Amino acid sequence: MIVNPIAGKASGKGLALARKLASNRGVEVRVLERFGQLAGLLDEFASLGVTDLFISSGDGTIQAIQTELAERKPFAILPRLALLSHGTTNMTAADLGFRRRNLEAQAEFIADPLATVLEQRPTLRAVNPRDGRPRHGMFLGAGAVSEATRFCQTAFNAHGVKGNWASFATLAGAVSRAMFTAPNAADLARFDRPYPIAVTADGRPYATGDQLLMLSTTLDRLVLGIRPFWGGKQAPIRTSIFPYPVPNIMRWLVPVMYGGERRKAPPGATSFASGALEISTPVSFVLDGEFFDPPEHEALRIETGPIFTYIRG
Fold this sequence. Notes:
Layout: E1 2-3, H1 7-10, H2 13-21, E2 30-31, H3 38-47, E3 52-57, H4 59-71, E4 80-85, H5 91-96, H6 103-111, E5 118-126, E6 135-137, E7 139-143, H7 144-155, H8 163-180, E8 195-196, E9 198-201, E10 204-207, E11 210-217, E12 237-243, H9 249-258, E13 270-274, E14 276-280, E15 285-287, E16 290-292, E17 300-311
Parallel strand pairs: 1-2, 1-3, 3-4
Antiparallel strand pairs: 5-6, 5-17, 7-11, 7-15, 8-11, 9-10, 9-14, 11-12, 12-13, 14-17, 15-16
Helix pairs in contact: 2-6, 7-8
């Protein structure tokens, strides 16, 4: 098990779980004091023949671990992952994580991990960020998604408001402003402003010009349980793009978030599934809560990453 002790604003859940497992000689527990240790810890686990890796953290640590496992390949065979929802944001764990939330139940399972509920899912791989470091995550967003995530982290997460409460507060504020004030494309304090985003997949252009937001994911459900994609999952990565100006909020908010695969979509919105795509935009991206800049003079390439197996219970 890897414990990020500052996950969840140092909630202490991971360290408390580690103490419960301290006397079990069959469980290797390591505390990640700094991210520079991560590669060495994974190398050590690989040398010990670890097959099941429990991660006590939030989305950002999971993304860092998946990136190390996929890019450096320290394990001959990828370990199965069990995601423990101990972070400030746990969107990946909400969809693919270990289902038991009680620490005592988690400790009992880790001591004797007879997994009966498994799920497999690929990552999405950001191939060419500006810093040259490919990343593997489960959710990528740009435009209003990236701006809202940054606001949520500084306005709510930094002050102890976590998880769905912080996401709901951020969404409610943005929706209220869009509903009750006139659009203002020049107001940089608003999320609902135009962002130049062009998206192509399989040689087909899906969007160009000003958009409100775009998101790509291999998850089935996102924060607050929303499913803002439609049209069928014929490929691993689902992408949805919403235009600017913002469509009628009262008419489209609930269908966009919770409608079915055959839902009606706002005018100009599109949703599709693909194995890869390219995104051209000057704005920053967010990948599982971590931010990075697009490459200069070319599109960001997204492709399907390796398939991981997740222990659910």
